[in-house]
Amino acid sequence: MNNKNKPKFAVLLAAFNGAQFIERQINSIISQKNVEVSIFVSIDMSIDKTEDIINKMMKKHHNIFLISKNIKFG
User: Fold this and answer.
1) What are the residues facing 11 on neighbouring strands?
2) H or E element, residue 26
3) Which of 3, 14, 19, 52 is most solvent-facing, going by the fewest CB within 10 Å?
4) What would the pLDDT profile of 3-43 be if each residue is shown by its tens digit?
5) How far is residue 64 from each of residues 1, 27, 41, 59, measured CA to CA in Å?
6) So what's the pLDDT on residue 26?
7) Three-state DSSP state, 11
8) Confidence band of 73 (pLDDT split at 50, 70, 90)
């Protein structure tokens, strides 16, 4: 199946101090077969390395986007 025929999905990912798991979660989403996925990440006032990990992954993958950071929701 070529990219033209693949279904497109947007994944909205909220993260709060997610450094321990965020890279594994994103890699799992990216590795899905026969779909074209874009991942939009919002980081909620994290004090760990979540933002650093997301920035590193954005450099490797064109389909990861940081849409907000250091915003307190809720």
Assistant:
1) 39
2) helix 22-30
3) 3
4) 678 999 999 999 999 999 999 999 999 999 999 999 999 99
5) 22, 11, 8, 9
6) 97
7) strand
8) low
**Half-sphere exposure (Cβ direction) of 61: Cα atoms closer than 13 Å:** 21
Cα 60 to Cα 30, 44, 45, 72, 73, distances in angstroms = 12, 23, 24, 28, 28
Task: Show Cβ contacts of residue 56 under 8 Å, excluding neighbours closer than 6 positions.
Answer: none
Q: How many CA atoms lie within 13 A of 15 on its CB side?
A: 32
- Close Cβ partners of 61 (under 8 Å, ≥ 6 residues apart): 26, 30
Global pTM value? 0.85
